[in-house]
Design goal:
Elements: H1 5-10, E1 16-18, H2 27-35, E2 39-43, H3 49-62, E3 67-72, H4 73-76, H5 81-87, E4 93-97, H6 102-110, E5 114-119, H7 122-131, E6 135-139, E7 145-147, H8 152-163, E8 168-171, H9 177-185, E9 191-193, H10 195-198, H11 207-215, E10 221-224, H12 226-230, E11 240-244, H13 247-252, H14 256-275, H15 299-318
Parallel strand pairs: 1-2, 1-9, 2-3, 3-4, 4-5, 5-6, 6-8, 8-9
Antiparallel strand pairs: 7-11, 10-11
Helix pairs in contact: 2-3, 3-5, 7-8, 9-15
């Protein structure tokens, strides 16, 4: 695989980064991606100390290669002790998303971590660099889970230009070798992969939900607030979550105020459905790239195939030919 400066800086052999999906990217998945040559990032989610401790114990047990930990920044502001816990494990990377990273950047740097900041606009990218970010993750609206409005294709090169010479990583809709190659052509030095790795053997998700990702298409995903409302999470603007539409979504997506009023009555059944992996009455975050998820496989198989396909696409584009379109 051709190399980028960020890959050299982190000692990676693949330009693939596991998205820090809260409750899904645990230590096993992060370690599997790192062992395959990419960078695994444990998703610390909303800062459950016991969960974070358990999963960081797992990642350091399973790999000696670079790995990272990612935080929902607005939530971290309420539980700063979880950052201290994570930094004690000496991650190579700390990733901050969805909030002001400025109060936390110096603490991460002091422990030798490279700071990634995920952004959704060019203005946010400039703010992240001003706050001390080493790497900017430009996330398009195609991404599963929380994000904003701008699409990956135009956002990534705009951020690359805005923050040069800082490295940029692309996120949102990247699920195979073609989309990884596209991210690199746009100027990104690696890509964050979420939905495709949700459907991996090592992901901490219910098997029914993993299988559902194989069955659905990107046409069946929507950005919504209802899953935050039912969970009692007051996500700040402009962030909404992209999820697979289901019976719960159809019942409430046009009535968010009614859901908020009925939350105490509705939440117990939702939580039971989620624990059971019920794809119709629970929650399944997924991005528009879910069309490219065709099987639940080991993470190493997924990321190595993506990199090999991307290399083949880039080689075909560089080779003299008849002008045809290469395929993965």
């Amino acid at each position: 695989m051709r190399r980028t400066p960020l890959m050299d800086q982190l000692g990676l052999t693949l330009p693939v980064i596991a998205a820090p999906m809260g409750g899904v990217t645990g230590g096993w998945l992060a370690a599997a991606v790192s062992e395959a040559g990419g960078l695994g990032i444990v998703g610390a989610g909303y800062g459950d100390l016991d969960w974070v401790r358990r999963e960081l114990d797992e990642v350091v047990r399973r790999t000696t290669r670079p790995w990272g930990v990612g935080f929902i920044t607005w939530s971290l502001a309420r539980r700063p002790e979880v950052l201290d816990l994570a930094l004690a494990y000496r991650p190579a990377v700390v990733m901050f998303s969805f909030g002001d990273p400025a109060p936390f950047v110096d603490r991460a740097h002091a422990r030798g971590a490279l700071v990634f900041c995920q952004v959704q606009t060019v203005a946010m990218a400039r703010e992240a660099v001003a706050a001390g970010a080493d790497v900017v993750v430009a996330q398009g609206t195609e991404a599963g889970g929380h994000g904003a409005r701008r699409a990956t294709l135009p956002l990534v090169p705009a951020v690359v230009d805005a923050v040069a010479p800082h490295p940029v990583v692309a996120a949102g809709g990247i699920a195979d070798g073609r989309t990884l190659a596209a991210a690199l052509v746009l100027g990104a030095q690696a890509a964050v992969v979420g939905t495709r790795l949700y459907a991996s053997a090592e992901a901490l998700a219910h098997p029914r939900l993993k299988q559902r990702l194989v069955e659905v298409s990107g046409d069946m995903t929507e950005r919504t607030r209802i899953f935050d409302i039912v969970r009692g999470l007051n996500w700040p603007a402009p962030f909404t979550g992209r999820a697979v539409t289901n019976a719960f979504w159809r019942r409430w997506h046009e009535r968010p105020e009614a859901l908020a009023a009925a939350r105490e009555a509705v939440a117990p059944a939702f939580e039971q459905a989620q624990a059971a992996g019920d794809p119709e009455e629970g929650l399944l975050w997924a991005g528009e790239g879910v069309d490219l998820v065709r099987a639940v496989e080991p993470a190493a198989v997924i990321v190595r195939r993506m990199a090999a396909e991307a290399e083949a696409v880039l080689a075909a584009l560089a080779a003299p030919g008849d002008g045809g379109t290469p395929s993965a």
